[in-house]
Amino acid sequence: MNLAFGGPAPDDNPKLPGSLHVNRRLDSWLTFHADGRVSIHPGKVELGQGILTALAQIAAEELDVALERILVAPTITGISPNEAVTSGSLSIQEGGMALRHACADARALCLSVVAQASGVPVEELRVENGVFLGPEGPLGSYAGFAERDLLDAEASPHARPKPARERRVTGLSAPRLDLPAKVFGEARFIQDLRFAGMRHARMIRPPSPGARLLEAPPGALRDGDVLAVIAASEAEAERLAERAARAARWSEGAGLPVDWSGWLANAPGEDSVVAEHGAPAHAAQSITRRFFRPFIAHGSVGTCCAIAAFDGTVMRVWSHTQGPYNLRADLALALKLPGENIIVEHVEGAGCYGHNGADDVALDAAICARLCPGAPIRVLWSRAEELGEAPLSPAMGVEIEAGLDAAKNLASWRVHVRSNGHSGRPGRVKTPVLLAAPLMEGGEPMPPSINPPLAGGGGAQRNMVPLYRVPGLSATMTRLTGMPIRTSALRGLGALIHVWAIESVMEELAALAEEDSVAFRLRHCDDERAAHVLREAARMAGWGRALPENEGLGIAVARYKNTGAWCAVAAHVRAEERVRCLSLHIAADMGEVVNPDGAMNQLEGGAIHGVSVALHEAATTDGRRITSDSWEAYPVLRFRDVPRVSVNLIARPEAPPLGAGEASMAPTIAAIAGGIHQALGVRPNRLPFTPENLVS
Predict the structure, then answer these.
(1) Quick check: is 330 in a domain?
(2) Is this prediction's pTM over 0.90?
(3) 155 shares its domain with 208
């Protein structure tokens, strides 16, 4: 596995599933306890997506142990397997399939030892809730292996997990393991974590990008242009930070563009070919359309937080990072410490929906801990930092030229996208990409964000290639190399604009062909699983039914990353003073579903996130700084406006699992755009679909 982007890297080892291929020791994945419980040690982390519950189900299934006896250990560098980043709807595909194989292998190893010791053939043994049973009764249990080194071995490629027909735990909804503590207000989040003697720090940020610190106020801590205050309490830290911010003197920064559309169209970049095939057939009719989306924030309700403690040699960091090992790599670069002298322990935080500021605040805390060694130092970001300092999802521009031949079939498709890179995550380049790193003494300039390769899901080019049959395709990309605003991944990455653009153009072409848009899509779709979810969403929503004059029903379909889950969404909208989304009907095919309730939660959450992005969200600047740094300046969907959502999971237990967290967001945006056209007669070409953008 390529730990930067999760793709396989060639080696001579026998192939093992998912993350197990590069974390081959069984004892790094699970531990037997003398009381009969079993700990699993995932490298994928809980971000609110319910992954720990699904992983526990997988382990319980393969080990034949009751779900309540499975313990899930926190991810800690140096102890847990290195599974890179929890992102891209890959946790079950990578971590789940690794754990399934490891548990199946561990079960087989135990049964083999029991068979040898008892003389009972292994095929006559079975496991019931961790107890090994032969024809004459019990012959031991996993608990008996607690003090033995049986799992101190490399996983075998010959292990055979249970076939789908024999599974009794996975495929059924199980209550989330992490929810009771959250529902009852127990201290589970990193924001709740407290240590004896802990002190509180606040950062004082430059007033604009590129500004340098000319004069630090008395009593503040400084590392180059990094400025912080530390106090015994949060309240005192806030007061000191306000005072220090007023007293600090900074140089003028570089500023920010005012006309983002113009900047996007003219900024220099690197051109590349994403995909091409065939020669365009003669187009009897053609259209050219342009689409724009602004910078978008992650907008986590809970602001980012981290705690760090430095004893002069070892830096220990508690973080809600998506990639503990990747964060450790960048902390080592920024702090100039050996990686083995840094321990990152994952603690849950608020949902992050992509690469927010969790890694950045970890470096903030580590800098403060090094300046004030001994005591644990806690840094909590403000709402202004959360919305104004975390990486933003990049602004993007897409142009599509598409045509029909004389028989009203798709003849040609040319698409070009301009965007900054969508990956500014740590651990992927040789220069640290954390917010404070360039400001530290001896820090290097922030490198421009990159795009994962298309084989790894892509970034700006994600879902750029339509799933429809087209004889001649040309897809090209310009990755902008200037980065006035730091950019990185947000749920869906480039799919958010590409699915919307593709489905909008398909609807226009259907109108040119004088054909219903669902029928037109189906006629050009050779992917039966895509066609299935599209037909199902149309059925659920009552496609073709009459609606009041100011209402519309839109529909869209996509296969996430063109390699993941298939999802179709129908959106019922009403045009009032603003557009409202009244209901969503979602049909999804994600292959095997480990926890159906968890999968539906993820599809619903992604769709509701899509409604918020479609109708409300856009980062703004005044030419000097990001001004959308409060909920008033960066509005998101309110609870009162959440639409009714219905979900139909098309179960395929024999098929590989494909993930749910990101599949529904882009089709939701596209479906809302289609509903707006039906309601108002205009085709949106700028996000968000506000009254101002709809009439521009």
Answers:
(1) yes
(2) yes
(3) no
